[in-house]
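Because showing beats explaining, we think one record worth quoting, sequence and backbone structure tokens together, and here it is:
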Amino acid sequence: MQSQILPSRAALVNRIELQFEYGQNLICLIGASGLGKSYLAESFITDKYPEFNKAFVKLSAHTKDSELTVQLLQHSFRSPLIDQTLSLSDNFITLHSESSSGPCLWVLDGARHLSDEMIVELQKLAKQTVEKVYILITAQSPMMVPQALDLHLEPLSLSESKALMKMFFSQLPVDEDPIFQAFLSESHGNPAVLLDWRPAEQQLAQPGPSKYTKAQWHLTLLTVLLALLMIAFVYKKELSELVPEKNEQPAVDTVLPSEQVFIGKTVDDVVMLNAEKVASTGAQDVINDEEQLLVVVNDKPDSVKKVGSEPRRVAAVLAALTEPRDELSGEVIEDNSAEDTRAEAVHKSIDQPLLKDVQPKRKVMSSTDINSLEHSHLSLLAQADTNWAIQLLAVKDKVIADAFITKNTQRILHLEIYGTRRSEVIWWIVVQSGFTTLDSAKQAKAQLPTDILAGQPFFKKQTKIKQEITEFAR
């Protein structure tokens, strides 16, 4: 039996064989067009009666009776001499009398193309007793071949329809697919209709991407790119701070040496950091609450260089602070012999009793200083929080801060001093206050003397100053 045949069709093939065994030599298989009559007839002649002489003839409107006679006899006898004047039955009997043919199985596909004379001849051969001849004819309607047994071929059931399609199609829609269900129900179990299934045509057409959709995706990508660029631009400073610089500039001192304050050396004796940038009015306007340096002294005064060790330098400075202001503001010794004489005088003045006398003077504040400090604090605290100030000096020694104010009172207006605590250490800050806006503070900074600008003064908000004064009062 053929490899692909449904169980109901296989059962019908067995039934046809059984009817032939019962003595019914002429059988007509009835079925509508497309139900698979020809396929079933081919399965029958292929799988059944392998010892018979077989002939399968597909009839058409152009098939003549003489041609059909020749085809049937040639498949039943070896090299038959056919008499064209005799009928099919007479030729068969004559040839059999000359040479036995053996049992024969004839399958004729298309009963509507048989003539009445040929049907009569087939009836005669089915009834003759000379040789066994089984004749199977396919027809679309019953009673097309008189005296033949009509066996009806029924349409496939729903389950057999799906099974048939699975034999020929590797991929089928799911059973719940409404389009597939409608196709099965409308096919009415006809194999010809079922095998004409075209999956590509039955599926709903998927709309392709439109030009508007592509443009929308491009616009979205461009928007995201612009957003990333804006974020990188806004946070450029924060991102740069995350990456440490390889070549960092070494830190420099932020305190103006006391010798420079009292000796009164000109700005030409001081090495300024990045002098060309500081000279321009637009540079270094960034507001910063951190400690900023005022001037950078790379070369120590010559009088201090002559003193040998660190303790001697400290003692020399303390001794210089104890001298009267008039004496300290004298002329600077220009030749080397005068400097050596002064260094020796400083060495002689450094003794234990003098250091004992200097220590209380440096730590104890007079009532005048206290009143002046309170006045400065009250003046700064009374100003509005929106005001701005310019920080000019930050030192740990109040004597240096007072000397700075005394020296620059005539040149700079509104100088104020206040104290603060940082890491349990008292610092004295000198500011120029009283600016209501940042622009006015910038204008005042541009008018500062060159030696003051060398110290890189910076802006400070009034709220920060009040906070530092509060830390000092604790």
